[in-house]
Amino acid sequence: MMAMGAVDVVRGPRSSVEELLQIYNHSESVALAVDNPELFNRIAETFSSKAAPRFVILLWGEKSSLPINIMEGIPIFNYKELIGLGRESRKAFFDSSDARKHYMYETISSDDIATLVYTSGTTGNPKGVMLTHKNLLHQINNFWEIVPAQPADRFLSMLPPWHAYERACEYFIFANGAKQVYTTVRNFKVDLQQYEPHYVISVPLVFETLYSGIQKQISTSSTLRKLLAFTFIKISMTYMEMKRIYEGTYLTRSQNEQSYFVSMLGWLRARIVAAILLPVHMLAEKLVYSKIQSAIGIRKAGVSGGSSLPAHVDKFFEAIGVVLLNGYGMTESSPVLAARRLSNNVLGSVGHPIRHTEFKIVDAETGKSLPHGSKGIVRVRGPQVMKGYYKNPLATKQAVDEDGWLNTGDLGWIAPFHSRGKSRRCGGVIVLEGRAKDTIVLSTGENVEPLELEEAAMKSSLIQQIVVIGQDQRRLGAIVVPNKEEVLEAAKKLSIVDADATELSKKQIANLLYKELRKW
């Protein structure tokens, strides 16, 4: 579709019929390409009566499984028929005597819209993000800085193929001749071991799940092995922190240089502590981490993007020798704006901007640019920034100013450059600290960033998800989704319930979670 200059409008098959119909009508689409007969049957009646398409393409499955006359008079092609029609049309064209004379190929402009990707619509109707060929080509041409892919490399992916993050990565992978392996949540761990991918490009939840699985496996081992593994991990985390300090990749917001004497003392202390802990870390690598690395199966690096990567997950994988690269972007920027590199992997950040991309931090009230190290609203500019929202000039104007700066709505700061040694490696990296609209203002006037609290609570194995709330209230509250299996096990260990119990009361769960939250 994109190669012929048409605009594809993508949406996941789990969307409601109402949402699909609203997007179809708003985008002024003329045809449908549907995943399978089940999806077609779910939407056909509504679409045939309210937005009859010119034709339908059935990507998988056979037309024989469709109800008769469900879209009477509307051509329906399965994938094989579509390919066959293309071959016939091409043959007939080139067999004609003046094919060359009538051969008219209209070149696609780089500024032409390639795709419309509709946002989630959590704050109203979804908005259609207009991404051009130029936007997507920027990603293809510049991802190599983050992932130096080779044709022999394998990538494992489980993101929806219509997602902007997945599409940009997929185009890059194919453009470099590498292999893409698709998996599902159910098969992810098996496929990791079977295919041993060089890279896994996914969202933080996938790496959190791997982290939880490893923690659980260690916790269920013998007392001696468990004590040994957790002691090793704690020592390795300290070693890695010291290593970051003396290598100059330890984040600091301060723009004022410490005195040379104090800086040298800090560097020297980190160097000494790291040297003392190095033999223990190497032993842990041989006895414990090598087995974990083999079980995970990621050869070169995991690349996380799409949302915030919890700090404890980031530090854990660093300690056990599994490389995680964290990135940042949004649908409106095709989507990648910044990412950590293999050569400069600064934990706690989303790395440096990718090529031809500018960042600035502005004051939320005045819009004035702030110096490096100052926290404010993140704005970005570059070739990957969208053309705008389809048929919504007001929303476009609010998102992108006259100079092309996109307001991300995120809070963050840019690490300042320091004048001495390797500390310059941290300079210029982007650090995010939540969404501007997420800031909770209590009735006491105190401003609270919920992200830090949520990340701290997520370290607990008892908590599956948490959202901190409390706008205009005197105190904070939280909506917590418990990890039921872990909560039950904890209750048995604390003798709250019998060893053969299979469930807990809501009061028991609430009491356990309350104690756990206070601890974290």
From TrEMBL:
GO cellular component, one term: chloroplast
Any GO molecular function: long-chain fatty acid [acyl-carrier-protein] ligase activity
Start and end residues of each AMP-dependent synthetase/ligase domain: 2-390
Pfam annotation, one family: AMP-binding_C_3
Record-level GO BP terms: fatty acid elongation
UniProt name for this protein: AMP-dependent synthetase/ligase domain-containing protein
